[in-house]
Design goal:
This protein is α+β, with helices and mostly antiparallel strands. The chain has a single domain, classed as Alpha-Beta Plaits, CATH 3.30.70.20. It contains 2 helices and 2 strands; from the N terminus they run ββαα. It has a two-stranded antiparallel sheet with strand order 1-2. The longest helix has 12 residues. It holds the Pfam family Fer4_7. This is Ferredoxin. InterPro entries: 4Fe4S_Fe-S-bd (IPR017896), 4Fe4S_Fe_S_CS (IPR017900), PSI_iron-sulfur_center (IPR050157), YfhL-like (IPR047927).
């Protein structure tokens, strides 16, 4: 699954630089995650780094975007092959 940022986001700016895929950016009101780039850090780290640093725990799995670990690894390989 890709991750998502909920309305509880306080725009603290700590998650964006932690994303190894550049999937996090400032949205209109809060930070957003591009599901096409989010691999839950599969291929980079054991745990999603944005979740690790978020002080308000507002980055859950996106139930609309179910992906297996194998699918996340395939996405990681596509992203990093460029």
């Amino acid at each position: 699954m890709a991750l998502m940022i909920t309305d509880e986001c306080i725009n603290c700016d700590v998650c964006e630089p932690e994303c190894p895929n550049g999937a996090i950016s400032q949205g209109e009101e809060i930070y957003v995650i591009d599901p096409g780039l989010c691999t839950e850090c599969v291929g980079h780290f054991d745990e999603p780094q944005c979740q690790q640093v978020c002080p308000v725990d507002c980055i859950p799995l996106d139930p609309q975007r179910e992906e297996s670990r194998a699918e996340l690894m395939e996405k990681y390989q596509r992203i990093t092959a460029a």
